Predict the 3D structure of the following.
Amino acid sequence: MGSSSSRQQGPSRSQSLVLYDNKKASEAVEHVRSDFVDPRSLVDKLRPGDMIQVKGNMVHQWFYSHFAIFIGNGEIVHVDSSDSMLKKCDVVRIHMVDALKGKLVRKNNHLDNADGFRDKIQSPGQIVKTARGWVGKFWDYNFYTNNCEHFVTLCRYGRPISLQSSGIGDLMSGKITTKEFVDHSVYSIKEKASTLCAWIKRKARGLWDGIELRIERYPALEG
């Protein structure tokens, strides 16, 4: 893990954007999900067992999210699927801010209120134990049937499910029933809409912040 000083590094933010991110992160404490913010603002607002959704800046990441499990002390456990062409990916434990520097993140326990899952939520201790138990092992990665979202839902709910793959792979692999597939298709549409709206809102706020920073650095010449 990196030093404490390295964890303070990351994209520059104006004071107004820091306040915005801190406010949005604070709202996550008592809710199932939050808006997207800089990881430096969210890390202290998470509880062990929370699922973290990550959005990058590459085009393909507009439609696909990475997921990780928060295990406390600023650390996460996740499937390192940075090279998704690999069939076996490492499950790693790392400091959240070090791992997600430059990305946007949000707390997203998206199945906590879903039928068939709200009563399956594991205790924080059990979620952390499951996640830690995978560290150093290989995850048989497949986007449709065994991706990073499957990993975090396995830890949190005891069942590996992925909404971003629309449940097709889960149905074909026997992870869900036909009825659950119909329900999950609805959840999937809502989740994708929620993700897109939250991501666009924070990106727009970030673009405006970039303009403010440029104005601060290059003020108009007087006289």
